[in-house]
Amino acid sequence: MVEKEQVWPLALATDRLSSDDGVSGLTAKKVCRRKCIKCCGSVAAVLLILAIVMIILILTVFRVKDPEIKLNSFTVSQLQLISGTIPKPGVNMSFIADISVKNPNVASYRYSNTTTSLYYHGMFVGEARGPPGRAKAQQTLRMNMTVDIITDRLLSSPNLQSDYASGLLPVDSYSRIGGRVNILNVFKRHVALIMNCSMTFNISSQGIHEQKCKKKVDL
Description:
two-stranded antiparallel sheet, 3 helices, alpha+beta, nine-stranded antiparallel sheet
């Protein structure tokens, strides 16, 4: 009696191959997902580091600081008196204001026309205008501005005789410098420097006896 050969069904082999393919496919997906997560994590880490570095630079090196203005001296360049007491009517009288602008930034500070006005007991008596300029990074720029006095207006003040008798002439000055700080064309800031000074002019020495200044930064 001939024994029949045992034959395995083809379906079982086919099922085994499809099962192995499914496992390998899932493994490939997991590997790809891990690579994507690592890549995204690396990019996020780099962006975070760049953001932290930029914040540090903005708060330190690239931080726009307010320029500073200072009145160094205020002297008379021309003064003609009658009998050494009061100015002659119709003659020119001028003061020279020595003003310095300090730029503490890592970029230049460009400013427009500079104006300095002079007041005597609240009355406008003279003004000076300076040209625009540029203060380089970490530079202190000095400028001399000639303030031409309106002599007739000064002589019309009722306080002139008593002030000249005391030898002291109280004057107030107002200076304004408008400009802009520009760092790498990214960090820009408009800054206007304002300085109000109250001074006492000594007639005999033709110099400043006392001086008090208040500074303000207008953004």
